[in-house]
Amino acid sequence: MITRKEMKVAVLLHDPTEPAxxxxxxxxxxxxxxxxxxxxxxxxxxxxxxxxxxxxMGGSMSTNDESAYPWLIEEKALVRDAVGDGRPVLGxxxxxxxxxxxxxxxVYRSVREIGWETLTGLSDQQLFPGxxxxxxxxxxxxxxxxxxxxxxxxxxxxxxxxxVGSAVGLQFHLEATAPMIAAWTxxxxxxxxxxxxxxxxxxxxxxxxxxxxxxxxxxxx
Length: 221
Known about the structure:
- This protein is of the alpha/beta class.
- 33% of the residues lie in helices and 27% in strands.
- The chain has a single domain, classed as Class I glutamine amidotransferase (GATase) domain (Rossmann fold, 3-Layer(aba) Sandwich), CATH 3.40.50.
């Protein structure tokens, strides 16, 4: 029997520009057997994935782009199966939108957010602090799936984090490293790049700590 300590975790990548960041090292530090699945390269899922916990990373596509990316249909089915089985699922940015869509909620255009934002953790859920900083990189948002609990909210995009069954979705990036953020902001004006770099130096360590706390929370679900 596989224990939580020995859990097999599939980390699904959708875009070469959006790796798993510190999530890989956090999983390794906790003794989990993590395998990277490069959907951006293979467009297919390994056979063993039906028994694994899932971590769904970000990507430049929309969850609604099923005709262009047919594997989105299968990925949503995997999410539904995992939640039905009670297996942990963590979704980041596109990954959160995939969870929402898989469970019947709408995903649609939102205010474009890029950069560090101050978000509000809902105290009754006790996962995030009252206020915290997280890096945003998205132009879509989602309605909450039926039965979901909102974990964090923002001024411009209200649905920032949620839990439903064994799944947790984060619209924001707690896993992002300084090189990842530098790449994501490379097309911004120089003053904006400098501001993001300074805020990354200030806020990334706490974001990575929160990333570990969220990962622990999800893998216990």
